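so my prof wants the structure for this chain in the tokens format not the other one, which i didnt know existed until like an hour ago. anyway here's the sequence
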Amino acid sequence: MKDQPELLILYATQTGNAQDAAERLGREAELRGCVVRLLSMDEYDASSLPREDAVIFVVSTTGQGETPDSMRGFWRFLLQRSLNHSWLKGVPYAVFGLGDSSYQKYNFVAKKLDKRLSDLGARAILERGLGDDQHHSGYEAALDPWMLSLWSSLSDTNPMFFPKGIDFMFSSDTLIDQSSIQVAYHNVGKLNSQLTSDLKNMEMQIERARLMSPGKFSHGKKKPDCLLNMIKNERLSKVGSGKDVRHFEFEFVSSVIEYEVGDVLEVLPSQNPAAVNDFIQRCNLDPESFITISPRNRRKQDPIPTATQMVPIKLKTFIELTMDIASASPRRYFFEVMSYYATAPHEKERLQYFASPEGRDDLYQYNQKERRSVLEVLEDFPSVKMPFDWLVQLVPPLKTRSFSISSSPLAHPNQVHLTVNVVSWTTPYKRNRVGLCSSWLAGLDAEQCVRIPVWFHKGSLPAPSPSLPLILVGPGTGCAPFRGFVEERSMENPSMSTAPVLFFFGCRNEDNDFLYRDFWLSHLKHHGVLSEEKGGGFYVAFSRDQPRKVYVQHKMLEQSQRIWNMLKDGAAVYVAGSSTKMPADVWSTFEEIISKETRVPRESAVRWLRALEKAGKYHVEAWS
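here's what i got, hopefully its the right format
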């Protein structure tokens, strides 16, 4: 029999926030003397749940209410009909969710997980916590008080979770003394000659670096699907319009990947070389040294390092490919560890305050709201000399950026196109910021040969068959995937019978940001995909060209009868664009149209739409 019960913390993350929250819960529990096991859901055998002493679930909601990739297998297991209402009888659990209240399905994954666990007989020891990205302190505003209640609830469940009492805490220095990973340095002169040739292979370098980076890239493919070369960089929006929207065209270089319209391209951006050099200099690192990285105390359940992970990589290359030192903001734990290594008393005091519950709001204002980078934070606290192993563990990972593909492979063999808004904004303290990936792509010269590592995957918009009638709603850069849809259908048009397409597009001004104007208008003519002869239509809302703002939903209401007739004929709805209010407004407009055209109450229209969604004929792809 175990002397002390074990607390299992399972997390499912898409961008890293849920992992950060789970790791924080684990650290806080260990400080109180609790035995903790922390795992991603895809690393855990779900059939073991009935034997756990207590389980904390930390889950994020992605897109329009979807589960993170790492949770999909776990969730499928929980939904098995063979599991009855007593399968988890009495197992203590609690759920904390991370979401964004600007989305229609706010924290949907946490809510449905909580209900399913309860249905299977598990016992909630605490009401689920819901973190909101929209809060001025982010998800931690809900996590801090929820965590305090959690310790009390765990202690009530079994006091032996905290054998020294709930109020006991080890000094945090005991946990901060060593990072969870170790960096080994290698004498390059003694390395196998294969190393030199391997390092020339960009795909292998990326795979090696991402495999070595512990925990940060535990999901998805490490090696890029292929390398692309940019052949076109065209500005779509008018200069001086306040927006910089680009059309990019790429050719396959290393291999040709088969993709479908509606798929998504993930791009690994390059970092500013000057920023990388400044970081290396600030941290007193040797950029030419060769390293391997591994867990400091490897557990039985940890995977055995692969041969690729054992081949050393240049330190500078590792930083360039895996550590986001100049665009992402560090997490709260970064400041806590920094306080341990600060030698100037005033810096130590400020860092300790930032890491405390009392300093949470001030830290949020200083850090996340200003989007201070790791490099900027380190420069603000010059007395801090953090060891490289801690930096590897705590610096946010250099993440790929996802873009809806805006081309058809039938229309452009050996190519893939993107429509990208070049992100820029001003912080509350009037600091100019730009998006790392979009600004990097915009700055590339299509005449030069720059290899761009990419991954292809399915998005939320499945490729429609030629016989499926389509109602497309894509304001702004939401038109990107539908450019591919229209291209594809125009290629199919001459050889087969294709169903009609209605497309609703919106932008601010006809002169400034009417994206792909000539393209859409060309498909309105000569029996094109959007032409009346083909049963189609193209409707544009220019929101700022008249005193009263006009949006896509206004144009939809004008075509109420056409939309309902197409829905009756089996049309599928595809919505793409900004995640703020647009998807919810469009859904509401469909409710209004169905209610009006069928003369049924709004509640009946909602049920009709829900059935359409369940049948796989209402798709949304939204981004913030």
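also thought this was worth mentioning. The two ends are 50 Å apart (CA to CA).
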